[in-house]
């Protein structure tokens, strides 16, 4: 039961969570990581790792398929947004069960306008586009990690940002807070768990402080989104609260979120359930929304130290 994390990057906590799940299940398996950077910290936590091309370079899919064959991978998890459509298009030819959306759904989640249109079709509330009143929020139609997103207080600022944001979308500015919901589908389009958390502090687009919350309306909308996307594996659904405290859904990241360890700690044991389900082991799923509320997370950095010879040897492991 070997698993592969692509673009494993800084996701040390995620790798450790899967390692704990293996131990709890008394299940044999290895954790394999790939990245483009031999200094990616989470590679140090993997049992085995390889260097691969960037996901927008020729040879990426072939390299991933080679890793899956060489390391006998049972489950594959993408961890950054740009590679999801690429892996989705190839998911049936990788020689493993790739926990990634169908190709059509992956294209929708990569496109924030298409995502908003999907939400509207299935009755999920979204921010008003081109509201005609300020302040407004400007964001790229295709983007990730909060890059190129701005609040515009008036026409002058809006004009400035429209010239600098690629493929801009203009929508109403919502005061928040922002609620992130981790959604898990063990089988295609069947939601097995949801866990919502409020972002308290964000660093470089990833939550650094958060707290678990639950709202029936948010959970219900997230179930509809997971079903509409025919989702497989973990997806992350983002929403902001309006002035009346009602949710407005903004995007889907079809992968484990950086803050997913908070949900694991609160009782949504996604790594254990994913491994058990794939291995055919019996396990019980709690009712949706059954997790510890008011659990706070605060994060910090830690370091690995790698000599030059080791770094050079790791870099040479590129497929």
Q: What this model shows, in words?
A:
This protein is α/β, with parallel strands linked by helices. The chain has two domains: 2-111 and 176-298, D-amino Acid Aminotransferase, Chain A, domain 1, CATH 3.30.470; 128-172, no CATH class. It is 30% helix and 27% strand. The chain is built from ten helices and 14 strands. The protein has a six-stranded antiparallel sheet, with helices on both faces. A five-stranded parallel sheet has the order 3-2-1-4-5, sandwiched between helices. A three-stranded antiparallel sheet has the order 7-6-8, covered by helices on one side. Helix 3 (83-90) links the parallel strand 4 and strand 5. Helix 1 crosses helix 9 and helix 3 runs antiparallel to helix 4 (103-109). The radius of gyration is 20 Å and the shape is globular.
């Amino acid at each position: 039961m070997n698993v592969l994390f692509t673009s494993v990057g800084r996701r040390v906590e995620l790798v450790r969570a899967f390692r704990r799940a293996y131990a709890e299940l008394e299940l044999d398996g290895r954790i394999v990581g790939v990245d483009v950077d031999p200094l990616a910290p989470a590679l140090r936590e993997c049992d085995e790792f390889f260097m691969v091309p960037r996901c927008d370079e020729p040879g990426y899919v072939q390299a991933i398929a080679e890793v899956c064959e060489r390391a006998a991978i049972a489950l594959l998890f993408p961890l950054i947004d740009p590679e999801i459509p690429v892996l989705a298009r190839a998911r049936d030819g990788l020689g493993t069960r790739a926990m990634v959306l169908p190709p059509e759904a992956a294209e929708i989640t990569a496109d924030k306008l298409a995502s908003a249109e999907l939400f509207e079709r299935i009755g999920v509330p979204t921010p008003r586009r081109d509201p005609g009143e300020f302040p407004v929020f400007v964001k790229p139609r295709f983007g990730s990690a909060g890059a190129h997103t701005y609040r515009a207080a008036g026409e002058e600022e809006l004009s400035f940002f429209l010239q600098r944001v690629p493929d801009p979308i203009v929508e109403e500015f919502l005061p928040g807070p922002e609620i992130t919901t981790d959604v898990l589908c063990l089988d295609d389009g069947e939601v097995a768990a949801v866990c919502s958390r409020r972002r308290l502090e964000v660093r470089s687009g990833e939550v650094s402080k958060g707290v678990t919350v639950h709202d029936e309306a948010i959970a219900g909308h997230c179930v509809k989104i997971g079903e509409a996307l025919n989702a497989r594996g973990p997806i992350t659904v983002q929403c902001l609260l309006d002035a009346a405290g009602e949710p407005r859904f903004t995007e889907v990241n079809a992968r484990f979120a950086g803050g997913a360890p908070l949900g694991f700690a609160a009782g949504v044991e996604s790594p254990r359930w994913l491994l058990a389900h794939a291995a055919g082991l019996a396990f019980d799923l709690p009712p949706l929304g059954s997790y510890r509320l008011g659990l706070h997370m605060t994060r910090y950095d830690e370091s690995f130290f790698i000599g030059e010879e080791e770094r050079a040897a790791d870099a040479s492991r590129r497929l």
